[in-house]
């Protein structure tokens, strides 16, 4: 059985196309999760892009078919409908939601291109797996073109509750399209419940419901909660590799004698980076004994830099880092080291191994794979996970210090607590968390999805 997966984002970006041509793994949880899946399975990855890898003579470890997007499509479909309409709304940022009437037409047009591309390569025994909010019209368009194969859909972001979803002008069209799948899966039971409530509310006349199954136009659709994961063994291997050991040794020298906190986020307003920095500021204001003792490293991965709200958040974060460092810097020490970069994975894992704790402060997040990567990288145990209660991971993962990132005192108290936690407890809870993530890795997620898809 071949797996045809479809995602908007190509797994690798072309870096510096003018002189040296390099491939850089695309940021974000979706690619982090699907790259190992495709390396292990027979299949084809259908993805979008303005620049095509094949035009640069670049090949990947698995077959890729790219759908070429025009700059206008990128503007209205990707920057517009995907990232100024669906993204803010599905993450409960209703005030950032902005409708441009032109976006929808381009969204459908690009989704049609994906459906056409899939129809060109599809064989009778294949399974089609459509991913995420950028491609939600693809299932319907595939059926319209005659696809009879099993179609699965996985949403990598939250599915909002009924009152939020109600705001979405294309609420009927999207639900109706998704009901052309055989399996629709989300990260958590909450997202699944929201989806079923929306189906009942908006499509109630046309569907029948039997528990988690929806019967629509004679077809039965399963709806499941399947939290995504990581390639645990591979990350463990990288954590023990020579490049990571070298990076760790370099970092240990730089941060000798310091306690180290870490944040790793795409610089997205949903990630709560500025809220986290304010929490850190509040912590240092109230726990001055940690001045010159605690270093916080924020790795901010550039993302969607042509979208207005992302340009704004970048400016605000730059300013906030400057202001907080200005306030507390002393004798050559500053509390925040800020790296605006998509690091090589081996180096990133070096930071994971160094940090005494990590703060995931998302204001809303589908799951958050950084939390799981950190856990997998802690090959010598220790290390603590401070996790926002607004992430899918908080609903799923055991042994984490939960925070409400909207509340500076909550962040500050969690930092204080993890810094004071006894070493035996720290080691015990990290080893139990590691056992959980090891058991529930990306391959188990894949097996479960395929089992439900049938
Ligand atoms: C999230 C989304 C993915 C997306 C990633 C990076 O994880 O769920 O679909 O690929 O962010 O965002 P980008 O817009 O760069 O693809």
Number of strands: 17
Sheet-strand content, in percent, reads: 15-25%
Largest sheet: 9 strands, mixed
Number of helices: 17
Low-confidence stretches: none
Write out the strand line-up for the largest beta sheet, numbering strands in chain order: 5-4-1-6-7-8-11-10-9
**Which topology of the largest domain does CATH recognise?**
Rossmann fold
Can you say what the CATH homologous superfamily of the largest domain is? Glycogen Phosphorylase B
According to CATH, what is the class of the largest domain? Alpha Beta
Query: What is the averaged pLDDT score?
Result: 95
Helix content: 40-55%
General form:
globular
Indicate the radius of gyration in whole angstroms: 22 Å
Structural class: alpha/beta
Bound molecules: 6-O-phosphono-alpha-D-glucopyranose
Instruction: Say what oligomer this is.
Output: single chain
Tally of individual domains: 2
**Terminal CA distance:** 11 Å
CATH architectural designation of the largest domain: 3-Layer(aba) Sandwich
Short description:
With 454 residues, the chain is of the alpha/beta class. The protein folds into two domains: 3-226, Glycogen Phosphorylase B (Rossmann fold, 3-Layer(aba) Sandwich), CATH 3.40.50.2000; 232-440, Rossmann fold.
